[in-house]
Amino acid sequence: MKSENSQAPSFDVKKYLLKKNLKRDLPSSIVVFLVALPLCLGIALASGAPLFAGLIAGIVGGIVTGSLSGSQLSVSGPAAGLTVIVLGAITSLGDYRIFLLALVLAGVLQLVLGLIKAGTIGNYFPSSVIQGMLAAIGLILILKQLPHALGVDSDFLGDEQFFQSDNQNTFSAIGNALNQFSLAAVLISVLAVLILLFWPKIKTLNVVPAPLIVVALGITLSLAFQGTPYALKAEQMVAIPVVSGFDGFIGLFSMPDFTAIGNKQVWIVAGTIAIVASLETLLGIEAVDKIDPIKRVTPTNRELIAQGIGNMASGMIGGLPMTSVIVRSSANVGAGARTKMSTIFHGILLLLSLVLIPTLINMIPLACLAAILLVTGYKLTRVSLFKDMYHKGWDQFIPFVLTVVAVVLTDLLKGVAVGMVFSIFYLLRTNMRNPYFYKVQEEGNKKNIRIKLAEEVSFLNKAAIQVLLTGIPNETNVIIDGSNARYIDPDVLETIFNYKHNAYTKGIIVTLEHVKNHYTVPKLNNKIVEEINN
């Protein structure tokens, strides 16, 4: 008989959440794996690196960076945005092993950037630009994957730039594909898209992930078309290296050439990779946080540290540079992932597929994977997003649309730069209109103007305040009230003091109330600082 003091078994919340999240994370990892596999290979091919180098970066990005990252949904791996830099670096350095040294040094630089808290720059990307970048990536996925869905695979699957390596651009490639499409690829991609859209809506069937059904269908149909005029060609299939034994597997790895550490060009390449990869990562995690259903916030400095360690590890064993990649991360979110276990599992699956089932993986048509990316793109660039941004006002909608157009017509970083320029324009415009509060009081034959400054008066307010002060009529009493101000920028203070000094020439009497000679930036409390740093 149990004693009255005996307690019921305690409910382990962590175990419950882990089990609950695994039901989402495991299927999601399969989707990310299927998306990442050809992207890793395509980016390696476009970068002029060994195909295995792309897989190394994907594996390290999933397991190492995924484990260290503070992001729950971001997926790291080789990025299309770095292909031009990597191709140029390998060519200029003349030896892939010397390039690996540059990559290791780039990882060290990223680690340093994280330690000195440089990741906080990611907090200054405007929401309209990030939303525009996401919508643009969605459009790019749709436009770029259409040729692959039609069975024309002259350009690598993960290409995101407008001008392609096959001398086509985004739009001409679609026209070219329409003229030489493969009936088998079209059938596979159409059926795959329909399955991806409707399979999850059937509760009795969605126990099995839709992408697995798509892959099984693709393999079955490609086998069925063999021996017919419509059979898929080798370039229309996934092609990972087939390893023969343990020695063959070990032989695929490369080590950096540390004897070239004194080469100036190596350090230039390292700095370039570190800066570009860090910017793409910060943009990537900011975008992923926007589409996270739980709205978690990724610690940016920790992310740079994780990316730095990941790139060091990738470089040490022969891999490509990596960043947080929006395409894979978006597929991860769209597949229903909840924690970083999905990212880690996808890295493990990449490794296992290479070692255990390369022959089976090479039977997957690229049209299947293009279909997965088409659906991902559709989710990112839905019409409702454009409507929502329009209703937020022109100061949000115009930078959003211009970011979309610029990213589609150039590349990710250039497009974001265009969006940032227009966002800054609207920021300055807003500050011109609202840097202070003021009211005009009439007393007798003279005007008394009281200008009440806001809590924070930054350098951005300087021009607007100068315009206001210059427009004050002669022989006016002006009171500049800083009682609400917690901080006034030194340049603004100089403007105010200079105006007071010279105003008497116009018969203007200036009185300063609660305006100090110097202000210090308000300090955050220690708890907030610690949270920001982490």
TrEMBL record:
Ranges that cross the membrane: 51-68, 75-92, 98-116, 123-143, 181-199, 206-225, 237-254, 266-285, 305-327, 348-377, 397-428
Principal location: membrane
UniProt-listed Pfam families: Sulfate_transp
GO cellular component terms attached to this protein's record: membrane
Membrane topology annotation: Multi-pass membrane protein
Key words, A-Z: Membrane, Transmembrane, Transmembrane helix
Compartment(s) where it occurs, according to its Swiss-Prot or TrEMBL record: Membrane
Chain ranges of the SLC26A/SulP transporter domain: 22-391
GO biological process: transmembrane transport
PANTHER family: SULFATE TRANSPORTER (PTHR11814)
Name the record gives this protein: Sulfate permease, SulP family
Organism expressing this protein natively: Pedobacter insulae
Species classification: Bacteria, Pseudomonadati, Bacteroidota, Sphingobacteriia, Sphingobacteriales
